[in-house]
Design a protein that fits this description.
- The chain has two helices and seven strands.
- It is mostly beta strands.
- The strands form two sheets. The chain has a five-stranded mixed sheet.
- 22% of the residues are buried.
- The model has no long low-confidence stretch (mean pLDDT 96).
Length: 76
């Protein structure tokens, strides 16, 4: 079931205190909860619950990792 979340609603999915860890890239929301590199909602200084569209382009992997992630919905 796809969901639509605003940036404000996305903040709830920070991977802390039992919350799911979601990140938005180019309007699509991905679930990084079960990704070891995103333990506790943090990955190389970035935090879940945010739109990381610009930041992902500075990562060595760029968007190549997105195909492996479950899509949750859309950022509205």
């Amino acid at each position: 079931m796809a969901v639509n979340l605003t940036k404000e609603e996305l903040k709830q999915y920070d991977g802390k205190d039992g919350h799911k860890a979601y990140v938005a890239i180019d309007g699509t929301i991905y679930d990084v909860t079960d990704v070891d590199a995103w333990k506790n909602g943090e990955h190389h200084g970035n935090v879940a619950g945010k739109d990381l569209s610009e930041i992902i382009m500075t990562a060595p992997h760029k968007k190549s990792v997105l195909a492996k992630l479950p899509v949750v919905g859309k950022l509205v």
